[in-house]
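> agent: user asked for a holo structure of the chain below bound to 2-oxoglutaric acid. Plan: (1) validate sequence alphabet, (2) canonicalize SMILES, (3) run complex prediction with ligand conditioning, (4) return tokens. Step 1... ok. Step 2... ok. Step 3 dispatched.
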Amino acid sequence: MHRTTPLPLFARGLGRVKLALKSTLQRAPSRTTAPLDIPCRWQDTLLSPAGPVISDSRSLADLGYARSPHPNIASGAITGLSVVHRLLTAEAVATLQRICTGLEHCAGNSDWIISRRTRGATALSPFLHGMMHSRAFLLAVSRIAGVPLLPYPMVNARAQVNYFYPACAGQPREQVGMWHTDGTNYVLNLVLSNAADYSGGQFLFHNHTIDTFDVQDCRSVEAAPLNEAGDALFLYGSRVFHGVCPVQRGRRMSLVLSFHCPYARQDSNRFWHLASDDGIAATLPHWLRLRWTVLTPAQRQFAALGIVPITFEELGRAEARRC
Ligand SMILES: O=C(O)CCC(=O)C(=O)O
Ligand SMILES: [Fe+2]
């Protein structure tokens, strides 16, 4: 149990429709989007040779989901959350730190779930693009998830960098990650700061189903042990309430990567979740493309990205049948 839950709860239901209308009417001034000039390319040798170390893993069934969100995959076979260490080498983490620090000039402040972040980061960094389209990287994350994964089809929602600082003179409001569930299902939250570099900033999650979440009740809230830069919390993000506490000292930076299962033929993301962020007009064409991609056969989705298909058998999950 985590002792305090000082975080606000992100708008739900009609509150999201209101935010969508607000975002539609007040489009933020366009930000700088020049790709980052850091001359390094992703290489598969940047994955830890010994593979990731998982210190805690709970399936969706362990979290209380008796019914699986996927018709033909048991909820005991899908990861609900995993604490992941050493997925990447120290060199890869250092490169990500440089890139994500460099992307801060593209960050916007908002009233949305995360106060300060740079979205669409794969379009801004060839390294991040290469990492998210590397079969070896996707296979490593698929093994953590329990299902084969591809990069999330919507580029804006695929990779974002979050920046957390304490309140200060120029920024009187402290930056938080409100209590929320993600729009996407498969989310790798990679922390790029060492715990010694900041205080506060704990990654909290609710160790149960979404319908049992009560913002006033911290009995089933836990803090993920993300202590070293490069540690990550993998989440079935659309089903696990989570948030990030305000940072009281120093700086916390994180990279949030979203994936989708091309075999699933369905996606949890909601129009109003996306539109509350980007506005209705900007969301509509991406939303239609997303629906189309989700209905495309898995083999064609892999082929479109030039990636040899990742199969359930390859993950050692022969029991999980394809949808
Ligand atoms: O910054 C983090 O560690 C995670 C934030 C988060 O939950 C999100 O961006 O959806
Ligand atoms: Fe999240």
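> agent: step 4 complete. Summary for user: The first helix runs from residue 14 to 25. Helices lie at 14-25, 90-102, 126-132, 135-145, 271-278, 280-295, 298-304.
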